[in-house]
Design goal:
Structural class of chain A: mainly alpha
CATH class of the largest domain in chain B: Alpha Beta
Low-confidence stretches of chain A: none
Number of domains of chain A: 1
CATH topology of the largest domain in chain B: FAD/NAD(P)-binding domain
Distance between the termini of chain A: 19 Å
Distance between the termini of chain B: 32 Å
Largest sheet of chain A: none
Number of helices of chain A: 3
Mean pLDDT of chain A: 96
Shape of chain A: globular
Largest sheet of chain B: 8 strands, mixed
CATH superfamily of the largest domain in chain B: FAD/NAD(P)-binding domain
Largest interface: A-B, 8 and 12 residues
CATH architecture of the largest domain in chain B: 3-Layer(bba) Sandwich
Oligomer: heterodimer
Shape of chain B: globular
Radius of gyration of chain A: 13 Å
Number of domains of chain B: 3
């Protein structure tokens, strides 16, 4: 799992992420996030990296 | 193998379809009945010791009985009923996968299954009104090497009946009966001491006592042996409820498997639709969590569901209806003293992926050759402990896989449901997301990764591929296994060095093995026992390349593979005999 900066343009990505949620209610946002996670997971592919990402996300509260 | 043309024993009448049905009584199928014969033990009053007693004449117990009979091992089978098929239970197998079909081929009943059963290759998965995706198994290559198809749909009781008839054939062909089939015989008492068990058996003619060196508990998910043996289990119960309807239509739907993850005609719950033998369709409806089985299986409700699915002009006969709930369960030890658990006494899984019955058949095939070798004295008694290593690993794997499917089909409310919705919506457009849609993962021949009798190079199943005998006729892996008659099979691929020829000759004399050289279409054969593998299918099925050897067991599993015929082969042979 990469923890060093890897996004080519972090601010643009963050803005785009907020924009796709802008007009959605909570249920719509949940579904979009779920789709996004599945799409991104397929970009990563590697099971070990995915497991590390899941663990890293669960550890933070 | 000799195929007899005359059907022995009580056979199936042409299936009679009743107009109505009795609630979970299976009255739509006319099943064969087998006579109770009073065992001599009752009159004599003496307690006889048997090498093997199989408890339960379901698909697992009968597969074991048939395998043992074929290997010439005497045993007794006790079944509390006088027929195959269902008495009160609801869910039964309808799909037999390649490994099971290969086992049935070895036992001599595959042709009958293929004639009676149904094969399909197109499956469609729907959510809501749309198809999410479809597949055609004929386009997939992984199953193509075997002489058996990826699977056949057929009602479980047919296979059980064919096994009973095959056992009768084997009994008649032997000098004296090998398999003692005792119907209407219920085990009501049990105790075991070092090395043997004592069983009390209740029959219509009275009670008697018998002893057994090996007791095989294939009596199903309600087994009394778990308590008698102090077996511990890991179990998980869910609230998912289903209703099965076996239906015959006047106007047939297409011969395709249709699966709805969310069926609009079933309150957006799942529905399965498959064709079986006799033109009967099995339709499984997922019901509301925790629903009352009696209500959801009432004829009025079933007819209403069918009308919503197939339209107002539907004309059909309801052959059989039953509700079911499932649980998953796995015994911690598949052997306790003299008792071996197999089929549903080893593990219980949800029906998804046909991993119940098929793995029971594989359990039986795994233990049969080991029992035969130990009883014959060609292997050490410790060989039997490998049954737990191998089939417990398979059981755990099958519990894991089926629980994942169950979770996809009955997601918890909240994020589990949201992720499923996300996966379904993505799958309509993107190929990758189809791999997330889990409507069942078909049973496979599980690989053994930590068996005490397999080398790390072994543990995989070998498909029943075809090759050419020395005289040019076609043979299969099963033919080789039957010819080896439970001796280990050493297949050596390619040309042999003079020292390898010498070692193999010596092995064939000193060890319970048969050695066969496998050569290409034009290569000269050096061994008398040789076969030709013109397309390399046999080599591919054995998972080896180039000059290599493969050590194959009677259950079609590799004990080990290697390159040079040397001490490693000798060591692998000893290991696979429990020495």
């Amino acid at each position: 799992m990469k923890t060093q900066p890897n996004l080519s343009d972090a601010d643009t990505f963050y803005e785009q992420l907020l924009d796709v949620h802008a007009n959605l209610d909570r249920d719509g946002s949940e579904l979009l996030n779920a789709r996004l996670i599945l799409l991104l997971a397929n970009q990563i592919g590697d099971g070990k990296v995915l497991a590390e990402c899941l663990a890293a996300a669960s550890k933070l509260n | 193998m000799a195929q007899t043309s005359k059907t022995p024993g009580p056979a199936f009448a042409n299936v009679a379809f009743t107009n109505g049905y009795e609630f979970t009584q299976g009255s739509g199928y006319q099943l064969p009945e087998y006579p109770f014969v009073e065992p001599p033990d009752i009159q004599s009053g003496s307690v006889r010791r048997h090498a093997v007693v199989i408890v339960g004449g379901g698909i697992t117990g009968l597969t074991l009985a048939c395998s043992l009979a074929q290997l010439g091992v005497k045993a007794v089978l006790l079944d509390e009923d006088n027929t195959v098929g269902v008495k009160g239970a609801s869910s039964r197998g309808i799909c037999y996968t390649q490994k099971s079909l290969e086992i049935f081929d070895k036992l001599g009943i595959y042709e009958r299954i293929a004639r009676k059963g149904v094969q399909w290759s197109v499956g469609r998965t729907f959510a809501g009104k749309d198809e999410v995706y479809s597949f055609d198994l004929r386009q997939q290559s992984s199953f193509q090497l075997s002489t058996q198809p990826p699977f056949i749909n057929i009602q479980q009781f047919y296979i059980e009946g064919f096994l009973v008839e095959r056992i009768a054939e084997l009994n008649r062909a032997a000098i004296e009966p090998i398999m003692d089939m005792r119907w209407q015989s219920r085990v009501v008492g049990f105790e075991q001491k070092e090395g043997f068990a004592t069983l009390d058996v209740e029959t219509p003619a009275g009670r008697y006592r018998m002893q057994a060196d090996h007791v095989i508990d294939a009596s199903g998910s309600h087994t009394p042996f778990h308590v008698w043996c102090g077996a511990t289990l890991k179990a998980k119960k869910g609230d998912d409820r289903w209703c099965i309807a076996d239906v015959r239509f006047s106007k047939r739907p297409p011969t395709e498997r249709h699966t709805w993850i969310e069926a609009p005609f079933n309150d957006n719950r799942s529905v399965w639709q498959h064709l079986m033998a006799d033109d009967v369709w099995r339709i499984d409806y997922q019901m509301a969590p925790n629903s009352d089985p009696a209500v959801v299986s009432s004829e009025a409700q079933v007819r209403e569901r069918l009308r919503r699915q197939f339209g107002d002009d539907l004309q059909c006969e309801i052959v059989w209806v039953g509700p079911y709930a499932y649980r998953s369960q796995c015994a911690d030890q598949l052997r306790i003293g003299s008792v071996f658990f197999m089929g549903d006494t080893a593990k219980v899984v949800s029906p998804f992926g046909a991993r119940g019955g098929n793995t029971g058949v594989a359990d039986a095939d795994n233990l049969a050759w080991k029992l035969a070798a130990v009883i014959r004295g060609t292997a050490a008694p410790a060989l039997l402990d490998s049954y737990h290593d191998e089939r417990h690993e398979a059981a755990m794997q099958n519990v894991l896989v089926t629980n994942r499917t169950a979770r996809f089909l009955r997601p918890a409310d909240g994020m589990e449901r949201v992720f499923r919705q996300a996966a379904i919506s993505l799958a309509r457009q993107h190929l990758f997301a189809r791999s997330l849609i889990n409507t069942g993962r078909m049973a496979v021949a599980n690989t053994y990764t930590h068996s005490r009798i397999c080398e790390p190079t072994g543990g995989q199943s070998v498909q029943n591929v075809a090759f050419a005998w020395g005289d040019g006729l076609t043979g299969t892996v099963n033919d080789l296994l039957k010819w080896a008659h439970n001796r280990l099979l050493v297949l050596v691929f390619g040309s042999l060095s003079p020292s390898a020829v010498g070692r193999l000759r010596q092995l064939a004399v000193t060890a319970p093995v048969r050695c066969v050289q496998v050569v290409g279409p034009d290569e000269p054969a050096q061994a008398k026992e040789h076969v030709r593998d013109p397309k390399g299918h046999l080599q591919g099925a054995c998972h080896v390349f180039g000059h290599a050897w493969a050590l194959l067991r009677h259950d079609g599993y590799l004990a080990a593979t290697g390159e040079v015929v040397d001490g490693d082969l000798v060591q692998a042979i000893e290991k696979s005999l429990g020495l």
